[in-house]
Amino acid sequence: TKAITTEQHKTLEYSSSGVNGLHTVCVCVSAAVLWVCDGVKFGQLCKGNPNNRRRTSDRWGEGHYGAGRGNRRHQGLDIECRDGSTVYAPFDVTLVRKVIVYKDPEKKKTAINEGIQMRGEGLCFNLFYVRPDKTSGFVRKGARIGTMLPMQRVYPGITSHVHVQMCDRSNPTRYF
After folding, report:
1. What family, per the record (predicted)?
2. Residue 126 region by backbone torsions, left for phi larger than 0, else alpha for psi between -120 and 50, else beta
3. How many structural domains are present in the chain?
4. Are 86 and 142 in contact (CB under 8 A)?
C-alpha cells in the first residue's frame, strides 16, 4: 500500500472511464490504508514487560480506555512499566515532539509531566510519563526512546505505567 500523490491522483482521474471509475479507485485505496492500520500491533513498550501487560485495577483506579476519572473518562490505555525502566519504540516510528501531560500541574505532578508524540504504521500516538531521549527523528522498533518517570513519587501505590493515547483520542486497545 502506498500513498497517492496529487500528481498520481490527477493521472488516475484522467485515465478513468468516468466518475464511477475514479470512485472505485479511491475506495480501494482507502480500504487498503485502513487494513494496514487494523493489522498493527504494538511491540514491547517497556523493559521488564515483554507482553505489554495492562494496568488493571489499583487504589487509584483502572487503566483501560474509558475508565471513570471523576467527571471524565480515561482517554488512553495504561501499560505497566516500572519507574526508571527503559521505554522502547513499539515499531519503526518518527518522533514528532515532546508532550507536556498536565496543562496546569500541581507541584508534585511535575515529576511525571513529560511524554513523546510519535507516528508509525499509519498511527499517531502519545506516550505519557516518559522522559524522551530525543524529540525528533526516526527510531527503529525496539530501540530505546526514553525512561519511565517516577510515578510512585506522585501516586504512591499505583501500578506504574506508560499511558498510550492516540492523537485523535480514539481507543488504542485493538493495537495491543
Report:
1. Belongs to the LECT2/MIM-1 family.
2. beta
3. 1
4. no
Strands (E), 59-142: 61-62, 68-69, 72-73, 77-80, 86-88, 93-99, 115-120, 123-128, 130-132, 137-139
Residue-number span of the structural domain to which 137 is assigned: 57-175
pTM exceeds 0.90, yes or no: no
Q: Report the residue count for the chain.
A: 176
pLDDT at 104: 81
- Averages of pLDDT over runs of 10 residues in the chain (176 residues) are 40 37 36 58 98 96 94 95 98 98 87 97 98 98 98 96 98 97
DSSP state of 128: E
CATH of residue 117: 2.70.70.10
Is 105 domain-assigned?
yes
The pLDDT score that the predictor gives to residue 105 is 78
CA within 13 Å, CB half, 73: 10
Is 52 in contact with 41 (CB distance < 8 Å)?
A: no
**Can you state the angle between helices 19-38 and 6-15, rounded to 10 degrees?**
140
Query: Is 35 within the bounds of a domain?
Result: no
